[in-house]
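Journal club prep — side note

Before the paper discussion, L.F. wants everyone to see what a predicted structure for a comparable chain looks like in token form. Sequence:
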Amino acid sequence: MKTRFLKIERSCVILCLLIPLLFVVADLQGTAKGKASRRSGRSGGGDATVIGQQAIRAYQRRDFIHSYELFNQCVKLDPRDSSFQFYLGMSALQLSKFVEAEHALCRVIVMSSPDSEFATIAKQTFKSWRSQFHGIQPYSQVASSNLMRWDKNKGPIKVWVSNGLQLPEGYRGPQLTNEKCKSLYYMIDEPGFTQRLSVVQHYFPEYQQIVKDGVNDWGWIKEEGMGSIEFVEDPRKADVVFFWCAEWGGGHVGMAFFPWKNYDNSRCIAIIETEYLRQLGQRASKELRKTSAHEFGHILGLNVHSDNPDDVMYGAPGKAMTWMESKQYSNASSISRNDFVTLRALYELPPDEMFEPHSFTPQPKKTQKKH
């Protein structure tokens, strides 16, 4: 995360809020934290600084019309500056532009570490203006990683769900590692690979459609201009493949692996455990759908868990979910408004890493020479 502005007095920030926030505003000291380079690059940095100085002066004198216009320009020049996004949101708030304020402040939270100054104030703003923002609680996506998502302009995300197939010995459950995914890419591309796989124990044929239903819970991304989802019958054509394992262990009920860079045949690999479904009994179908939605949320780019049990992306950030936590997660609702605004904000920002749909070209069949 990076910010540009010099110190803004606490009294100025509080004065600019029509309804006082019930907390002590921290020093909004513009520091040079986290100015790591990003793949998307940064354009117009110098211009953004000049315009930003004009914008903050307009904000200080409560000229919110001009500060809103100027911060909008800053955000277009440098969307990953959290101070620009924050003051754009606060300027919009003073103009009763609640939709614009929501978008900007959500971006602040998603692009910032959870304990950062701007993110903390943005969260409190949503809490204090609860009726205007419907109580939303977006969550950070940079606690343990950079921002990552799919290129929303490169076609649908193609998904293949196996009918109970487990990977070969050595790749099952916790045996599968990020490094092993590299060789698995080539195995999946081999003709007849899936025909050589076995069906996992405790699997029922209806599970395949339930997983698809969980994936489709994110189908609204098409209407939001964030890409689309398409199911395919051939795993070689898929960007995302779902396999199964009997038991993962460590409290995990599902796992998703992101694609490796610089591999033409790389793809997301998702694994779902069947042992926990067996223990759930009649609740298995309902919880499988939620687990599938949870894993696909990771695949879409929500790499960091929410700490709200009402969100489908609920989990224990930074560590594996315990069995008790997985039971709590099982009681969560489907895709929540928090999940929605978090993913939306992620796709409004330039990421550090961009995934592109998989392109598969079948290998020509070898023909024997006639003698």
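L.F.'s comment for the group: The longest strand covers residues 157-166. Keep this in mind when we get to the figures.
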